[in-house]
Write the structure tokens for this entry.
Amino acid sequence: MKSFKSLFLSEDLLDESVGPWRPEDQVGKNAHAFHRAQWDHHMDQKTQGKHKGFKQLQKGVVFQSNSGTWVGQRNGVKQKEYFPSRQQAEHWVNGTMPNKGGISFLSRDKKFHNDSSASYDHGEKEIPGKFQHAPSKMPSEKPKKVSKPKPKVEKPKQTDHELAQKALEKSEPEQQPEKETTKPLQRNTPDDPHYQELKERDTAKVAESLSMTRDQAQDRAMEAAERGIGAGNPVSQAGECMTVRTVQRMLEGGNENDIRAELQNIVNQPDHVLNSKSGKEWVDAGMACAHNIIDTHGLENIQDVAWDTDEGNLLMGTSGHGTAADMFVKLADGTRVGVSLKKDGAIRIHNGGYDKVSRKIAQGMRDRGVDEQTVKKFEEATNTNNYWKDINEALSPEKLKQFQKDTQSVINKIVDRPYSLYADEVLGDAADKSKYTDIMVDDENGVPKFLSNIQRDLGPEGRAEFKSKMEKYHQGLLKKAPREGPDENSLKVLSKIAAYQGMDLYSTLRDADVKHFNRFITTMKGDSGLESAMKDEILHGMELDQILGIEKNPALDKLSVVYGVPPRGAELNEQSLMNMLGNDTQDLLEGVHEQFRTHTDDKKKSLAKEALMKNIKDKIEVDYATGAKDGTIKFIKDLGNGQKTEFPIFTMGVRTKGIGVSPGFEMVQTQFMGNALEHGFDIDQWPEKARKKWWNNEMTRARKQLKDLDETDKQTSQRGKSVSEYMKFLTDRVHNLKESYKSIAHSIHEIFQRSFN
């Protein structure tokens, strides 16, 4: 087995960022001038787009052409040879062809040779002897052999998945008479001759992601699908690998302190993708997840682990699992456990621009068979054109004229001194305010440009332009849907000045996001079909059907969600879900499992599943107070004797970055869930430190909501009617912290409902 360090330095990895070639024992030292010059040449070729990635060898270089084929060039030889895979190109350059089989040269067809790279050609005298390639009489180098049609030509490009699959196919033994004493070879076990090959490839990808720089992360984001690596962002991928590597090292007998030091050393590299305050938190989080996995299954019961790569899936027999699993654990009894890894409790089911998220949710509804009428209602309720319509309606010609009259002195003062402290106070202290101040000067009609821009965009000319852009968008000529109304910077200048002056106009503009969210919630609560579809979306985001094992997944036996809560992690599994949902749900779940075990009747299975899902969905409520930017998604648990308690699991709402920017939509797991998974669902049983931290965070969130309600809003905003009363309530609540911990219903629910009643 290769050492962890060697994986970072191995020639098996395509990574030109390590710099010019050096002997393995000389890594970290200065490279020879010849290889430095060669490396500079190919980096320049890549930057110019004349070829893709490359890799230096001692006696040559390989690189990927723009058509996807691989090119090999030996030092001092002008001729380039083309191959279907990188491995073949390397073998040719090194002169290390396998004993069995040969090398497949690609024909001289131009379709295989689509690159505009210049040959790196040095005369023999310029190349140090130790870097020169010995003359070879191998038939593969003779041009005549290349042109023969008889040799089988492989596909121009093979994915890692194809290569890994072929490795498994090769592992099938030839059909021979079997002796009674001979046990048949088991696929995907250490007895498989290619098991180790797949493992090394998966482990190499883990090491590669662990060592990822910021520049490599940008490239990785674009290449993820092609490389056979999961679709997560590079930062989270590097974090996931922390857990995979920790479990691997512990299986090898590694010491926890040594593993931690190893991981900390990696993230402390100056250009490492995780070298940030939040990035470095992945070390503790990754190790906490690893501890949870080991505590749950027992180190002695874990046969192997793998990352969610093509090789990892083939290794574990989980290809096509179709779940949110980031890694896999194979137990000694053959059980395949998928693990979805989370850094902490701040989990986002959905997060992004309203348009993007709503399209994703709508597509998810269609994929689950929700009727089109319900989907259309959702799309109409979440369409951001409604948001911009509210913004535009607040900017009538009369209000804009009055705005100019009331704020002209402020505008003049900033135009005269755009870099003054006063300008910073009004516009903010951004490094470059010119994008604002440049449009505050008067146009030829004596109107500040940002105001004339707004008037134009809202007038006949602007509406005509918007209509034209929409037509182009529907024709596929524009990638992004246009918005009707003022441009972003003009609207920002107006809102900043209005906020500074404490104008009613600012409150009206700011409440547009609240109206937008209220529009969606009202539509959802008024339509049972849409409400049911949204609850399905929540449960789907939780991977609930997979966690509960409602349906058999042929590629996976179990799924769990593990959170990196130090020191030992936390897990969302069937037991923790039943703790929230209650005995009646537990009984139904057991009935479903029984139906799936004993019956082949699909109708009976379907009815059992529907009864269970209805029971769970009936326990979901969306708490929303009129005028709020978000609502709380919670499970209601019946305690019997007319008593209930509630567990806030997610918040759902609007996220704004300022007036002028399209609103965002997010569905975020509550901090309560993170604590509950670690300490249980009875808040009275939490450690005092955890209770106080959670409570303080809830207070911070509540006070942030209050901060949004400035003094001027008391008269104009629907949310400002009970500000004083709300503040007093919060103050009293903080003073009586301990005696307030009676139940979740009397801690979260009460505080956020009372504030807007």
About this structure: The two ends are 65 Å apart (CA to CA). Residues 4-158 form one domain. The CA atoms of residues 91 and 100 lie 13 Å apart. The mean pLDDT is 76.
